[in-house]
Design brief:
Blueprint lengths: L7 H11 L4 H4 L3 H11 L4 H14 L3 H6 L2 H8 L6 H17 L7 H5 L6 H12 L8 H11 L8 H14 L5 H14 L19 H5 L15 E12 L2 E6 L10 E2 L2 E3 L4 H10 L4 E13 L3 E12 L12 H6 L1 E5 H6 L8 H10 L1
Parallel strand pairs: 1-6
Antiparallel strand pairs: 1-2, 1-4, 2-3, 2-7, 5-6
Helix pairs in contact: 1-12, 3-4, 3-9, 9-12, 10-12
Amino acid sequence: MVYLQETVTPLLAWYDGHARVLPWREHPSPYRVWVSEIMLQQTRVEAVKPYFERFIGELPSIRELAEAPEDRLLKLWEGLGYYNRVRNMQKAARILVEEYGGEMPADYDAILSLPGIGSYTAGAIASIAFGMSRPAVDGNVLRVLSRLEKNYEDILKQSVRRKFEQEVQEIIPKGRAGDFNQSLIELGALVCVPNGAPRCGECPLEKLCGAHAEGVELELPKKTPPAKRKIEDRTVLVLVSDNKAALRKRPAKGLLAGLYELPNLEGRLDREEVLAFVKEQGLSPIRIQELPAAKHIFSHIEWHMAGYAVKVEEPEPEQFAEHPGRREKDGIFFVEKRQMEETFSIPAAFSAYTRYFRERF
């Protein structure tokens, strides 16, 4: 195993010359670090940048996050997916307002105890925002360390992660905890990359790397293959009338909990079945058009979607968004384009079809 202490000096020197300029690094307050780290889970850095700027611009403090209406909060998160991330952030923000005066405490265990925060995020906040000597071991770091040590253990096992966290803990340099954690992450993101061959010729740790010495970089890291996803067929309906379209709110629990969606049904329906359903909702269809098929992949489920656009006559007044009684009956209600863009958060799973009626209103 490589003697990890030898990595510190060359890694920090490399980081000082190669670190990306990122908005959350400019003013690494605890709140900004927290928001960025939650957004960066399951999302690429370049995709996060505009969301981060908009979110911080509208909710610049923990207190404002705690007080934000849920619909507004979800709208700010629209497009990032995994909406429980931002719901947990708000739960944590309310705890911070109640127990810490709206500030993130400079206490690792207290940070770790907050909803939605695991050891990586707690370590990132503690080290980057507060300078505490705590490790922040994410997938990038696991990959770097696996290759450095030529370690064939399964990185998805908690015991392996904890071992790597302890190793990083022991070599964090005083006064540069945040920089060191970020240097490992940055190396994994830019050089010791996950897909394709690592750029070993650009790596400051090339001569220390056990995997590179034996030419087995692409064999590592080792991790358990993901379980096979369940396939579900769905039929998605774009119901439009003049400048309005139909939405429905999903149940409070389960997949995409509490979000707004396009009306959809289990299975693959044909035109006659779709028209029958539309009429059951008290709507009068004028014409129907089949839309291209689409697919969306969740972590454990894969939706294979058929789509139909149905032009309907002007709905009855109780079917508009300002008359919520209709929702209690069947869940479908109509909104104007402006309301949809400003108020309602619609998951990316429906993007192939929201694009359709947004372009054709």
